[in-house]
Design brief:
- By secondary structure, the protein is α+β, with helices and mostly antiparallel strands.
- It is 29% helix and 46% strand.
- It has one domain: 3-Layer(aba) Sandwich (Protein Transport Mog1p, Chain A), CATH 3.40.1000.
- It contains 3 helices and 10 strands.
- The strands form 2 sheets. The chain has a 7-stranded antiparallel beta sheet with strand order 3-4-5-9-8-7-6. The protein has a 3-stranded antiparallel beta sheet with strand order 1-2-10.
- A hairpin with a 3-residue loop joins strand 8 and strand 9.
């Protein structure tokens, strides 16, 4: 009887433990719930991007870091954020965009999507030369927990 009870506790603990898959980029780190894939790309004529993502619980969980060759001034950063927000809100499956400004210019976007899906994006600048976009897109009931974990795990060097 004691062995069965102990075995049940161990199996329950293993089933509820979340996998942790750290990713180390150039100057940042973030943790995913599944093994991440990564690529580097150029975004437009100036930005260099590092993008890491994982698919888990029917969600796409992503960290995208954009580096610019020179510091963007406050007006350029504001215009770029507005352009990103318009682009995300213009998705063909987007219905409603909720926007929230957090401390230090951090922008949180929640976008309602088709088929009871949604996306949460957190977008912010680290200095004048780096923009970070953290996002989770998937079923509405799964994205809140994944976004909290992703946002909390991000750190920059």
């Amino acid at each position: 009887m004691r062995v069965r009870l102990l075995l049940a506790v161990v199996l329950t603990s293993c089933a509820t433990a979340r996998a942790s898959h750290p990713f180390q980029g150039d100057g940042f780190s973030v943790t995913f719930p599944a093994e991440p894939a990564a690529r580097r790309a150029h975004e437009g004529p100036l930005a260099r991007a590092q993008i890491a993502w994982a698919n888990h619980d029917d969600c796409r969980i992503e960290a995208a870091v954009f580096d610019f060759p020179r510091a963007l001034d406050e007006g350029e950063r504001a215009r770029l954020l507005a352009k990103v927000e318009r682009g995300l809100g213009a998705r063909s499956d987007a219905h409603r965009v909720a926007r929230r400004r957090l401390r230090d210019g951090v922008l949180d976007l929640t976008i309602a999507l088709d088929d009871d899906r949604a996306g949460i994006w957190r977008i912010f600048y680290l200095g004048g030369t780096r923009m970070v976009q953290l996002s989770v897109v998937g079923p509405r009931d799964a994205i809140a927990a994944h976004s909290r974990e992703l946002f909390a795990s991000f750190s920059s060097d």
